[in-house]
Amino acid sequence: MTSQWQLRAAFAARLSDMYGREVPAYTTLVDVSREVNEDVLRARGADAERLGSISRVTAERHGAIRVGTPQEMQQVARIFGALGMRPVGFYDLREAAASAVPVISTAFRPTSREELARNPFRVFTSMLTPADPRFFDDDLRARLETFLAGRELFPPELLALADRAEAEGELPEAEAERFLQLAVHAFELSTEPVDKAWYERLERVSAVAADIGGVRSTHINHLTPRVLDIDELYRRMTERGIEMIDTIQGPPAWKGPDVLLRQTSFRALAEPRALRTPDGTVIRGALRVRFGEVEARGLALTREGRALYDSLLARIDEQASAHPGKDRSELAHTVWAEHMPHTEHELATSGLAYFTYHVAPDRPRDGSRPPTRISELVEQGWVRAEPIVYEDFLPRSAAGIFQSNLSGEGSRNNDQQGAAYDAAWLSGAIGREVLDPFSLYEQQQNHSIRQAARELELDGALDQAPHLPEGAS
To answer: Structure pTM?
Structure first.
């Protein structure tokens, strides 16, 4: 039998192989990522693996796909459910982007620490919002919804196997192989000719809308390796002549702890596609829809930490607007150095980041009683704090990646009122709860606190500490 995590690992590996064949520059990206990671490991030793073992980091991938309707999103949820992946987080890229990006998103991923350690594959999944009048008038919305209703992205056999794998937690070897074949094929770039006029009509609204609603299939848009030094990777990719986007999205590079997520990519490539003209003739053309993204992951921030992060971004925006001639990365570095805690210990004692806490093997053995405050337990050597890696995404960074790879700004009528979507709506649409990432990190942290308290015979004394500010008890 093939378990869910084995299906997940095999699917991620096969998807990577397929994408490398279709987008050769992706293979270069993976190779450079591996080289950088090996160099960082040699230079930093065990410290390089503080946010995940090198084997996990090397195997780690996140994919991105786009669908058009709630039904298609619900089917995607069934396929990823077979792999032990659940929807986590709600991202509204319509509000995060300055240009026209009419999608809402969630990420399907494993949720337990054990499953993440086995294989942390995640897929950022976006859904088109035809009901938003800022992007689609009544006529275009009707045409788009009719088009989407007439296509089938995932064959019934794949969905049936997915349901079985999710219900039983595994598949027999032959069925597992069939599931993997069908699933990988579902995300390959189709060779079916694209209706040129229809695609261009949607492209005038948004290149993302055209990529989703202008074709009769879906495909993997990017597959992202994880790197331990994204600035060095950016430099090496540029040296190899691969055109990268202008910036690295997310927090700036600095000497303090890495937090949340930094991302960059090479620009979308013009890929040959068959196009059908209005008179029925099929011609050879090219579309830019797929690109190579890479990411560096940091500590997961608490709600308070995330509020600080967002306030610092706003401060950087204000300063960049007030001083247009100044380098934005330098402004960001200065703001970070002034306002972001400089050590993991400060992040923990300020309640700004999530950690797990483990009884130290070399804890005091002089017969003294341990203190009942987490901060004191760490300072006195009773427990050690291990950072929880951020497993999720940032709307603004995702929108920045989307925008940097678009051929145009598209169109957006801000005189119209946007359609309302949120996590509750998406949960209802796909029939599965969209989980809150903060709650998942907090559960992981609190579980470790309770376990440490039991081992130190402090049962109850630490159970009431949901966060870890100085003085928590």
So the answer is: 0.91
